[in-house]
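A quick aside before the break. I want you to see a complete sequence-to-structure record at least once, exactly as it would be stored in a machine-readable document. Don't worry about memorizing anything.
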Amino acid sequence: MNFRRFGKTNQNISEIGLGTWQVGGKWGSAFDHKLAENILNTAADNGINFIDSADVYSDGESERAIGNFLKTRSEKFFVATKCGRQINPHTNEGYTPTVLRKYVEDSLKRLQIETLDLVQLHCPPTQVFYRPEIFGLFEDLKTEGKVQNLGISVEKVEEALKGIEFNNVVSVQIIFNMFRQRPAELFFEQAKKRDVGVIVRVPLASGLLTGKYTKDTSFEAGDHRFFNRNGEMFDKGETFSGIDYNTGLEAVGELKELFSGQLNLAEIALRWILMFEQVSTVIPGASRPEQVTENLNCLQQPALSDYQMSQVKEIYLKYFKNTIHQWW
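That is the input. The structure line, written in tokens, reads:
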């Protein structure tokens, strides 16, 4: 495992972390604590020390599974969680210091720990990033010892740039992949300037960048890739990175030609992200232990050449620059 400095926290975290959205099984299915235990242990056994969760993942079961796991291991893990998405309706007005404080305290109980390594605002409405009292709450929580660091998870680059204006924001979790390249422009520059860590989520564009999907691939009714393609339930950018599915397949076809000697496009897609020094960690999810080790295979891939990097950029410009670039 390789490690990178996590911004101003000065902690060293694994280049590949573990996202736990589906750690207890596929979304929509009953939570399987034994499966979660196996996935978490597989990650730890392979050197992963960064675990990302949220209080809404499986209604808190993801955090409970992590809490149980932590009691069985002697290693030091950097555990990040998120708060805010429980607010319903999910509006700016719903964000208050009192509500967020309770969410943090509830996460501490589920994780069975005394302090959170990192708590992140979970993709709040854009207006929240203009409210100093929300960010001030987390200073109080730090003083009380309940929180060590504050981060933000965002949908838009605009939100990331505004959020890091607050000095107590140490990290940004953002969608960044071969099909969503806008963060590599101004945001990465400003994150480096302010010594802010960058956590990359949705690195495989909801599986499109595995290269395994076709026009005939079907998704179950309970899968967000079935019901959220137009943002029916949450931000459209979370599903297939917001791109048109068939257009994505065309772009994947060109990527396969570019990397024709490679058997696994997912490994290339993850390695591409790690080519950017501003990235602290990438957090692909896993619903099976084998997916953890498959994701880690990207670390055995050689660095992409300048030609390959430029061609990936050309594919992005051809298919997505004029369609989704400005949205996120």
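Two observations worth writing down. The chain is about 35% helix and 10% strand. The CA atoms of residues 208 and 240 lie 7 Å apart. We'll return to this after the break.
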